[in-house]
Write a structure and sequence with these properties.
single chain, 406 residues, Phosphorylase Kinase, domain 1, Transferase(Phosphotransferase), domain 1, 6-stranded antiparallel sheet
Length: 406
C-alpha cells in the first residue's frame, strides 16, 4: 500500500501511524451525496495508491442533525470488509471536516447507467443478484440492515462488478431479536413492512426488507423503470395499500425462471420472501451458477463501463472549483488563517476578560462545544495497521482491492 503517514495517533484500532489530509493529493471531484462530497485522491509518496475520499463538514452536519448518522456509518464501515462492498481504508478529521477514504470505483453507479439507457442483459442481472445477495448474507452475519439498497448506492468497478456503498442509514440490530420500527429508506425501493411498521405499533421489519429493495433494483436495471409507482409524497398507509393490491408487469419474452424469481423477491409478506443467497441459488434462474465462484468474481457481467470517458457527471468538479465556498484544494491555507485568527481572538479575550459574551459569541461557544463532542466520538481508522490475525481472516477480501479501479 505504500508509505504511511508520520503523525502519532492513539486511536482505538491500535494504529501507530495516523493518515491525514496532507498525505493525499486531490485529483478531482466526482460526486456528492446527502451527507457529503466525494473526490478522487492519490496517496502521496506512493506510485499507484488512488482512492475515493468522502468528506463531510462537521458544523453543517451538526446543524442539519445528521452527525449521528455519519458517525454510525463510520462505525459500521470499520467492521466490514467484503469484495462487493466499497471498503473503508482510512478515517481522519480536522477542524472543518470528517474524512472517509475508501475503495475507488470509476465505473459509475447503476443509476447513472440506467439513465444512459444501457441495455443490461439477463446475464448482467444474474451476476448482480449473486453479488448483492452475497453482500446481504454478509451484512446479516454482522447484524446489519442496510435500509437503502437502490441503483444510486451501487457502484461498478472497471470489470462491471458491483460494490455496495452508503451505509449512512444502516442499522445494527440485535442478534436474537432483529426488529426495526423506524422508517428509513428511499420510498420507491422501501419494502411494505417498513411502511407498515411506521404507523402500526404491532409491526416491525428486519433483514428481509433489503431483499425487497434488491428485487426493485434489479427490476429497474432490466426495465429502466420501477415495478411500482411509489411517489415520494405518497403516505405510508397508501403505499402499503398500493403494494398489497398492486401487480408487477413482466415482459412476455422473459424466461419463466426469471419471472418466478421476481415473484419470490417482491413478496408482500416478508416471511414468504426470498432472503438468503442459498435460497436464491436454488432458483432455476441460477442453475448454472457455482456459489464458490461468486466471491472470487468468476462470474462475468456482459456490461463493462467505459474506460475512455467519465462515468459520472463532470459538473461536480466545476462546482468544487467555482461554486464551492470552501473548496478542498484551499483547505491548508484556509485552516492556517483560521488558526491565526483564533490566536488573535484568544489574546484579545484575555486582555478583556471582564467583558460579558455577546449573543453571537454564546452561539459560537455552543457550536464549539458540539464540535468537541464530535471530535471525542470520532473513530480514527487505518485498515493497513489492523492486526495480522484480522488480515489473515480477511485474506479473500484483501485480494478484492486489486480488482477495483486504480
Amino acid at each position: 500500500m505504500g508509505e504511511k503517514g508520520s503523525k502519532l495517533s492513539n486511536n482505538p484500532n491500535g494504529c501507530e501511524d495516523q493518515v491525514g489530509f496532507n498525505d493525499f493529493k486531490v485529483v478531482r471531484a466526482i460526486g456528492r451525496g446527502a451527507f457529503g462530497k466525494v473526490c478522487i485522491v492519490k496517496r502521496k509518496n506512493t506510485k499507484n495508491d488512488v482512492y475515493a475520499m468522502k468528506y463531510m463538514n462537521k458544523l453543517d452536519s451538526w446543524k442539519s442533525d445528521v452527525i449521528e448518522n455519519i458517525l454510525r456509518e463510520l462505525n459500521i464501515l470499520t467492521k466490514l470488509h467484503h469484495p462487493f462492498v466499497v471498503n473503508l481504508w482510512f478515517t481522519f478529521q480536522d477542524e472543518e471536516d470528517i474524512f472517509m477514504v475508501s475503495d475507488l470505483l470509476l465505473g459509475g453507479d447503476l443509476s447513472y447507467h440506467i439513465k444512459k439507457n444501457v441495455m443490461f442483459t439477463l446475464n448482467d442481472a444474474c451476476v448482480y443478484l449473486c453479488e448483492l445477495a452475497s453482500v446481504l448474507d454478509y451484512l446479516k452475519s454482522k447484524h446489519i440492515v442496510h435500509r437503502d439498497i437502490k441503483p444510486d448506492n451501487i457502484l461498478l468497478d472497471k470489470k462491471g462488478h458491483l460494490h455496495l456503498t452508503d451505509f449512512n442509514i444502516a442499522a445494527i440490530v440485535s442478534q436474537n431479536q432483529p426488529r426495526l420500527k423506524t422508517f428509513a429508506g428511499t420510498k420507491p425501493y422501501v419494502a411494505p413492512e417498513v411502511f407498515l411498521a411506521s404507523y402500526d405499533h404491532g409491526s416491525y421489519y428486519d433483514y428481509s426488507a433489503d431483499w425487497w429493495s434488491l428485487g426493485v433494483t434489479i427490476y429497474e436495471v432490466l426495465r429502466r423503470k420501477k415495478p411500482f409507482h411509489i411517489h415520494p409524497d405518497l403516505g405510508h398507509e397508501d403505499a402499503v395499500k398500493l403494494l398489497r393490491n398492486g401487480s408487477i408487469s413482466l415482459p412476455v419474452d422473459w424466461p419463466q425462471s426469471l419471472k418466478d424469481l421476481f415473484f419470490s423477491l417482491l413478496q408482500f409478506d416478508p416471511s414468504k420472501r426470498m432472503n438468503s443467497l442459498s435460497s436464491l441459488l436454488k432458483a432455476n434462474f441460477f442453475e448454472k451458477v457455482n456459489e464458490d465462484d461468486i466471491l472470487v468474481s468468476c462470474l462475468s457481467p456482459d456490461f463493462q463501463p467505459s474506460q475512455t470517458s467519465l462515468n459520472y457527471d463532470p459538473t461536480y468538479e466545476l462546482e468544487e472549483l467555482i461554486v464551492e465556498s470552501n473548496p478542498l484544494h484551499k483547505k491548508k491555507e484556509r485552516l492556517q488563517k483560521r488558526r491565526q485568527s483564533r490566536e488573535k481572538i484568544l489574546k484579545k479575550s484575555l486582555r478583556k476578560s471582564d467583558i460579558s459574551l455577546t449573543e453571537e459569541q454564546v452561539e459560537e461557544t455552543a457550536e464549539e462545544k458540539a464540535m468537541k463532542d464530535v471530535e471525542k466520538h470520532f473513530v480514527t481508522f487505518n485498515r493497513e495497521r489492523l492486526s495480522t490475525d484480522t488480515a489473515n481472516t480477511d485474506e479473500v477480501m484483501q485480494k478484492s482491492k486489486t480488482s477495483v479501479d486504480s
